[in-house]
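Protein: DUF3180 domain-containing protein
Species: Cutibacterium porci
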Amino acid sequence: MTRSLPPDWDDDRRPDDGGDPQGSLAPTDWKVIIVAALCGAALGWFALSIYKINDDTVPILPWSLPVIVLVAAIATWGYARAFRAKVVDPARVVEANQGLVSLALGKAIALSGAALVGACIVYMLTFVWHLNIPYPRQRTIVGGATAIACAVMTWAGWFLENACKVPKGPDDADKHGTP
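Structure follows.
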């Protein structure tokens, strides 16, 4: 998150090619988010199958769950907006640790939100065929609301991750080497 190399940087720690250090950290791709949602769906199906094997009743999700997830998503979105304002302002210094922690937090929130979306969709689809019965209807409605809240949480995590990008300065070159 720094705009220049640290003052203690010396030529002994540079890569062998003599160029600037290069990293392999990339923004989370939508394909990774889809894979996380599919993994969450598989875990949700596995958890529901355990209830079916044991001949137990699947619990009803409480209404507090989508509310809590939505509050977490709103808090993440608010932090992302505040952090982006700090990153964009050249007068303010962003510590490297704060940037890395924010990036990791954004990735974790986005991927866990996507996994929860997948699990909630499986939960919902299990009971959607019995909407005329009160408890399956309640499971479907609360599961749908939770899936929507988790999708908002996924978007907020992705927004936080993108808020960590340092804007290009006037002396930075683009991919083709032209300023």
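Remarks: The mean pLDDT is 86.
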